[in-house]
Amino acid sequence: xxxxxxxxxxxxxxxxxxxxxxxxxxxxxxxxxxxxxxxxxxxxxxxxxxxxxxxxxxxxxxxxxxxxxxxxxxxxxxxxxxxxxxxxxxxxxxxxxxxxxxxxxxxxxxxxxxxxxxxxxxxxxxxxxxxxxxxxxxxxxxxxxxxxxxxxxxxxxxxxxxxxxxxxxxxxxxxxxxxxxxxxxxxxxxxxxxxxxxxxxxxxxxxxxxxxxxxxxxxxxxxxxxxxxxxxxxxxxxxxxxxxxxxxxxxxxxxxxxxxxxxxxxxxxxxxxxxxxxxxxxxxxxxxxxxxxxxxxxxxxxxxxxxxxxxxxxxxxxxxxxxxxxxxxxxxxxxxxxxxxxxxxxxxxxxxxxxxxxxxxxxxxxxxxxxxxxxxxxxxxxxxxxxxxxxxxxxxxxxxx
Length: 401
Fold this sequence. Notes:
Number of strands: 12
CATH class: Mainly Alpha
Helix content: 40-55%
Distance between the termini: 45 Å
Strand order of the largest sheet: 1-2-10-7-3
Oligomer: single chain
């Protein structure tokens, strides 16, 4: 195990890429004792294992906690695990297949397509206010409010309640970090209970008075007699919010910070806005906001001669895979016109991000609005990274127009 992989070190979180390069150079799988995980740094294995059904986000569809050699989570954490365990991110077939199929009936490409004008309008409005103020914190003023407003509008959350969403989401996502503290767990449990109760109220209201929103569509979605349970609707809404904005917020500010540190590439983009679609993909590859995803090993697997036994956990290092020179030409270089770019920032296989098309719409809308209205935007201070590693982003990004 290479000593430089240290997810609790601020220096590592700020720049994990030399450590990834060292991991790739020294093997295909490394056991990391502090989290009892096997780190997998290469693109080919990460991509393959995301599609491998011998691994799973959960093991409870096949084993009890005892059979898998793990302790059940504390009873006091139950509200979090009920909420998280009924969402498609943490389910496997057959439940995952059934719920994802029903959710996909409500969350269609057409739904996303119809959102494009309102996403562009919201992005333009936020950027207009930001420019009028002469700049400030790009994260708080533009990056954060846009995806929250989009998801809230999709779900039909009244405007007056939208300020509740971000704190709930942040508290719940704390549990996805490595070895979360009991304090983090308690905050996640409280947020899970409050958010769930809030959504149950919205669902009850929509059952009596359906609207054009996603909650109404989730209630209505069915296959023959099969429908989503109330808990499955609640868990799906929370997942859409958490996944749909934690990652998008960080993709926005991480992306702009990357551009500021590559002035030649930024100048190319400012000169030619038609580069925006490939630029967004390249920024997601170059500095992904979700650098690691874990999977449980349900049946023994072998990586380059190393047997990883059932009951183990693998940490798939998206951030490393996206810079693997075995797959990407000039992998350490930012190239906004990169054509061959099968990055895995949205995952792969059955858990491929359902919201990827919406994330792309939001990123293109906010980057496009800023390129048009703030062509001279520049940073005024070196930003600090938040301490989290699994969901990785800046505390703020102060800029002037």
